Amino acid sequence: MEGFLEFLHDTPTMFHAEKKIKDILLENNFIELNEGKKWNLLPNGKYFITRNSSSVLAFVLPNNIANISYNITAAHLDSPTFKLKPNYKMVVGKYVKLNTEVYGGPIYNTWMDRPLNIAGRVIVRTNEGIEEKLISFDEAIAMIPNCSIHYYHELNKGAILNPQVDLIPIFSTDSNSDLLDMIAKKLNINKDDIISHDLYLALLDRGMLVGANKEFIMAPQIDNLECSYGLLEALLNSNPKDNSINVMALFDNEEIGSRTRQGAASMMLHDTLERISLTLGFNYLEHKAFLASSFIISADNAQGFHPNYPQKYDPTNASYINEGIVIKNAARGSYTTDAVSLAYFECICKKCNAKYQKNTNRSDIPGGSTLGAISLNNVSIPSVDIGLPQIAMHSSYETAGRYDLEDLIKAIKEFYSNHLEFVSDGKYSF
Fold first, then answer.
1. 10-38: per-residue pLDDT in tens?
2. Does 371 score more than 80 pLDDT?
3. Is residue 16 part of a domain?
4. Which CATH number does the domain housing residue 107 bear?
5. What's the pTM value of the predicted model, to 2 decimals?
6. Strand 244-251 and strand 55-60: pairing?
7. Do residues 294 and 420 share a domain?
8. What is the mean pLDDT of the chain?
9. Same domain, 283 and 237
10. How far apart are the first and last CA of the chain?
């Protein structure tokens, strides 16, 4: 658990998460491939690609490569927050504010009255062209203060917060203060060389264990760095079975719909799988046949039962913190789980004694969609949607269970140790 908490502390943005994961993969003898160059893939090889410095796709080849299939897991690295606009400086009265816009669907009031870090990337001019540099101040740079109750008597009756009015962070009382000056100083670069930036608000709060028996985790960005961390740990600690290629796809931009070149709606997964097959010497038709025996586990955190709002949950299909992996189901197809994919994943969990539970939303609360349904638009592979239960999802500081991550790692390790084979429609062997 300490490893996960440290991981969260080191990854205030999707760019930092990508860099952290990339470094871990390199330390574990993975080879970075360039999408713009020819690949050379060898049996037992471990490889990865990155895109936009905010998504990672890693894969491990088996020793025996003949009638292959792909064991794929997917999660996302981004979380709801606020992004600085290109022209961010606002002077109001004696204050300098930072003009932001909403990224994803955060719970607005959880960002109020907290010391806020600023992190992300800046693009700088070089003699050769342009270069990206990561930045995180790791200190309090701004805050979003509430209005005093004395001036807003209705505040506790449910304030409606306007993101352009109520949620703009305060930066300074010095009108000459400029964030770019601070960035240039911290990175030891010339301010005039900074061309553009992707900068976000981030919490400084560290994750911690909470509760009578320390059974809860409280931390920023649990959705969905918890699943991402679990998939990574499983990939690093498992070996593919003969004829199975293990794949981990960690996308960006799920919180804003995934419709970017580094999101799950892109062709990134589709093109990479095809490229692996062709590089290994198989033809296009063989590749299509391989996909029939492949499987995707889409891992994105799930809504856990909240005891203060019991009326929000299905009476027989709610999921609970520390009761294991949540298998998501939805009749409207917003999750990819069906009876066949559920059965396969249930068998995986039982083989490794990983706890699991089945979930649906109330019939009058439809819920959202996940990576699985989005990915299948481009890669038509049997899939199951799972997650780990949490409460306060999309809060700046979320709550999950201490023990559920262990079950996820066990289940994904078991999945990565299996070889699924398509026999006929609705019939598989493994």
1. 999 999 999 999 999 999 999 999 999 99
2. no
3. yes
4. 2.30.250.10
5. 0.96
6. antiparallel
7. yes
8. 96
9. yes
10. 32
The domain that contains 415 carries what CATH number?
Answer: 3.40.630.10
212 in a structural domain: no
pLDDT tier at 367 (50, 70, 90 boundaries)?
Answer: confident
What is the span of the domain harbouring residue 264? 2-79+220-429
User: Can you tell me the mean pLDDT for 94-115?
Assistant: 97
Q: Are residues 400 and 282 in the same domain?
A: yes
- How far is Cα 187 from Cα 149, in angstroms, rounded to an integer? 40
> Above 90 in pLDDT, residue 263?
yes
Is residue 213, in this structure, part of any structural domain at all?
Answer: no
CB within 8 A of 282, min separation 6: which ones? 68, 290
| Angle between helical axes of 2-9 and 222-236 (0-180°, round to 10) | 120
Mean pLDDT, to the nearest integer, of 323-335?
A: 94
Judge whether residue 315 has pLDDT over 90.
yes
Given 203, 235, 268, the domain boundary residue is 203
Inter-axis angle of helices 284-292 and 268-279, to 10 degrees? 120
Q: Verify that 30 and 156 share a domain, yes or no.
A: no
Q: How far apart are CA 342 and CA 230, in angstroms?
A: 20
Cα dihedral 313, 318, 324, 328 sign: negative
Do 396 and 279 lie in one domain? The reply is yes
Residue 228 and residue 75 in contact, taking contact as beta carbons nearer than 8 Å: yes
Give CA–CA dist 106/81, Å, rounded: 6
Q: How many angstroms separate the CA atoms of 7 and 30, rounded?
A: 19
Contacts of 158 (CB under 8 A, 6+ apart): none
Annotate 95-162 with DSSP letters as a single string.
EEEEEEEEES---GGGGTT--EEEEEEEEEE-SSSEEEEEEE--S--BB-PPPPTTT-TTGGGT----
376-403 tens-digit pLDDT? 778 889 999 999 999 999 999 999 999 9
Report which of 14, 205, 225, 182 is spatially closest to residue 116, judged by C-alpha positions. Answer: 205
